[in-house]
Amino acid sequence: MKYHILTLFPEMIEQGLHTSILGRAINNGYISLETTNIRDFSANKFNRVDDYPYGGGAGMLMQAQPVYDAWKAVAKPAEGKKPVRVLFMSPQGKTFSQEMAKELAQEEELIFLCGHYEGIDERVIEEIVTDPVSIGDYVLTGGELPAMVMIDAISRMVPGVLKNEDSGVTESFQENLLEYPQYTRPEVWESKKVP
After folding, report:
1. How many angstroms separate the CA atoms of 6 and 144, rounded?
2. Which residues pair with 50 in a beta bridge?
3. CA distance linking residue 118 with residue 134, whole number of Å
4. Contacts of 67-72 spanning 24+ positions with Cβ under 8 A
5. pTM for the whole thing?
6. In sequence order, what are the beta bridge partners of 96?
7. How far apart are CA 195 and CA 181, in angstroms?
8. What CA–CA distances, in Å, run from 111 to 52, 77, 138, 166?
9. Burial of residue 132 (number of CB atoms within 10 Å: 0-12, 13-18, 19+)
């Protein structure tokens, strides 16, 4: 699985995902991670990518052109291959679930678009996004954390990422049931015995 992340904060993604199980999966070639800084596609000398909303309103919006140009730089489908799905982290999107993670794990590549500020110019969203996705009903400062959550969950479904392949099959949300309580040794801890 190859992940492309379009973001204003590539270091946040790289530092968060190059550790633990995912770091090992990257090192072993089961998944790959490529961050693209949207600022690199700014057309002004200050690398500015935001502007005031057209018609007024609070906050700033990411402009369409730098986002579109960043997407064009990574979304080069090979001859005869279907276009790469673009997931936009958005509270208006479909709620992410374990079933969605399994479905997305079947793809060869995914592009994650991480917004910031008040969001992204709707015109570019309509042009490039295939899947708006939400991780819940709350507001975050950007799409980087939701993208990292989704990449973690999806990667667990990619063959080879988990050392024990059964771990991905017997997950907490398998068949809409929660996992049972689990215990370690010793059998008695702080006068509490394993049932």
Report:
1. 9
2. 62
3. 15
4. 67/6, 67/38, 67/41, 67/113, 67/120, 67/121, 67/124, 67/128, 68/124, 68/127, 68/128, 69/41, 70/6, 70/36, 70/37, 70/38, 70/40, 70/41, 71/6, 71/111, 71/113, 71/124, 71/128
5. 0.87
6. none
7. 10
8. 26, 12, 23, 27
9. middle
Burial class (CB in 10 A: 0-12, 13-18, 19+), 96: buried
Q: How far apart are CA 27 and CA 138, in angstroms?
A: 34
Of 21, 17, 66, give the one whose Cα is nearest residue 46.
Answer: 66
* Eight-state DSSP code of residue 117: T
Give 57-66 pLDDT, tens digit per residue: 788 899 999 9
Q: For 134-168, how does the pLDDT look when each residue is reduced to its tens digit (9 = 90+)?
A: 999 988 999 999 999 999 999 999 999 998 655 55
Identity at 90, one-letter amino acid code: S
> Residue 32 pairs with which residues in a beta bridge?
2
The β-bridge relationship of strands 2-7 and 32-37 is parallel
First-to-final CA distance of the chain:
41
Residue spans of beta strands (DSSP E) within 42-195: 50-51, 61-62, 85-95, 109-113, 131-134, 188-189, 192-193
pLDDT of residue 52: 83
